[in-house]
Every structure is written in structure tokens, then in C-alpha cells.
Design a protein that fits this description.
The chain is an all-alpha fold and 300 residues long. It is 72% helix and 1% strand. It has a two-stranded antiparallel ribbon. Helix 2 packs across helix 14 (269-295) and helix 6 (124-134) packs across helix 8.
Length: 300
Amino acid sequence: FKIGDYLKIKRRKSRVKRGAWLFILPILLLHIFTILVPALVGIYFSLTDWSGFGPATFIGFENYRTLFEDPGFLQALRNNFKWLVFFATVPFAIALTAAFLLSQVKRGGFFYRIAYFLPYVLPAVVIGSLWKFILNPDSGITAILSNLGIPGFEKALLGQPSTALLTIAFVDNWHYWGFLATILLVALQSVSPELYEAAKIDGANLRQQFRYVTIPGIRPTLVFMFMMTSIWSFLVFEYVWVMSQGGPAGSTEVMATYLFKAAFREFSAGLAAAAGLTMTVFAGMIIGVFLVLRKKGWEI
């Protein structure tokens, strides 16, 4: 092995690295100017007293102190956690059951997949507006059910603090679980049939096959979608804003609607930036938890 051959190999590797950087440079620059720079600007404005117009006055962490002393923001934070608990359980249970049952269907499976997925592609504003009309206590389906004598529908579900947030979560779940079922169905179809055959030979029933074959086989997809759902739970905005705008009495206020009102109603852009950065921190904490689990050997 000669030194000249070593230098040739080193130069060749250097050219390959430069070529790789040239290929990723456009998307890297795009990421810097659309993600990194706005993020740094947002961090700066979160430390200022700024109305969104004119100069900003640096006030340090005063906006963060204001946030966590504001009962409205704390209520919004609690509602985001309630939303997280709901979407980490209900849609996953429905979607996993539907995907498993659909995986057993031999004919018409494509029709069911389209039917499940269709609500997800509809605009959130359209869905929220339609369901708001459907849930109208005077002319919607709740009025019809109440007139038929069915108990529990005689009140405005979106007008009661005790039911408003759960009602909006139900509507969002109606739109979301079909998408989740489709994703999980694809993961189910990637599980080797030989594993099910081996389980049957060992005497495993349907429930045991689901527990010991299906769940381990789709665990990476399941965990990934759980992570994404958890992140989205802290970013929810459209359905809440269209259906209640945070009311009644702040019972459906979430951090995104709090941020929107602070920025565009109260013209406290600095406070809104602090709220947005707080949302980012919570989403980052979720990602951090999953990164730790991955280092511990979880398949994510």
C-alpha cells in the first residue's frame, strides 16, 4: 500500500463529501431561512414587549412570568393535556380495532379504506362548521334526538363548559381515527403471515395472536404515530377555533387559541411569541422522551 494510493482514496472521499453537501445545500438554505431564522426571531420577540408594530422593548423573561401567572393560560395548558389524554387513547383504540378487523376482510377492503380515510382529507374548517350546525340545540341532530325523548341531548353540547371540550375532541376524532386506522392497517399487512400460522399451531386464539404477534409486529408504527399524535395535541387549533373560539368561559381554550388572541386581539405579539415557544418546548419534550426510549432499545 503506497502513500500515493492513500492520498488518491482520501481525495476521492473528499469529492464525494463535497458532492453530497452540494446536493443538500439548497434544502439546507431553505430550512435555514424558513425555519431557523424565524425561530430565532421568535425567541427574541418572546423576550420583548412588542405589539406587532413599531419597535420592541426588551423585557427579559417577563412574558413567561406573565404566562404562568395567567389563569387563562394555565387553563389552556390543562386543556391541551386533556386533549392529549383523549387522543392518546380513544382514536388509537378505535383505529387499532378497525385495522385489525379490516385486515381479516378478503373482499371490499379497498372500499372501507377509502371510506375511513375520506374524512381526513376534508378541510377542518368545513368539518367544524358542519358539526357545529349538526350540534345546534335548536335545529341540529341533538334537537331531533331530544324531541324523540332520548335523554342527554336536551342541552347545547358546545354551550356547556362540562361538555364543550369533549364534544370538539369527538368531532376531531371523527376526522382523525380513519387516517390512523389506514396507517395501522398498512403496518398490519407487513406482518408476516407465517407468524400467525406459527401462533395458531401453538394453540393461540385470536386475542393471543393480537397481543403476541400483531402488537409487536406494528410497534414501530404504533409508537411513531403515538408520538406524532402527542405533538399534534399541543398544536391543535382549527377545530377549537371554528367551533367555540375557546369558549364558553375558557373551557375549550388551548394554547394555540390563547396565542392567536394574544397576537391579533390584544396585540401582545411578545406574549404570543412566548406562548408559541412554550408550545414548542412541550412538543420538544415529547420528542425527547421518545429519543430516550429509542436509545434504550425501543423500535421507533
